Give the backbone structure.
Amino acid sequence: MSDVKPADKSEEREKSLLSNIRESAHKIWLAGLGAYAQYEKLGQEGIRFFETLVKDGEEVQARTQHRMDEMKEKLKSKTTDKLENRINQLRDILPTSTRDELKELSHQIEELSEAVKALASEKKPATSASRSSSSTTKKAVSA
């Protein structure tokens, strides 16, 4: 039996994939630099060769971008489906009465919050008024 968890294996695969992508990107960069060096060495023939490479590169980029967009959409759809399924499972676990009670409690919390805000706004002017009346009382007492 393996002690490695599925999440750990997935993380290792991601790291390996990223490493491979970085390595490939670096090699592609170096190949581009090499092509440019050949372009400079070969003169007119190098110009045609370089233009052919650029054209081929643009075609590859267009194809891979299309594939990446498709993969992104599939992944997004798959993730959304999994999330919706999980939410539905959780809803099924909670009894209907509990869900109704939670809605009611949420509503009551909103009402209480509004009432507290209203009381707080009413209390502020009263506090300053009570301070001025108490200072007036203190002045009258000391006189």
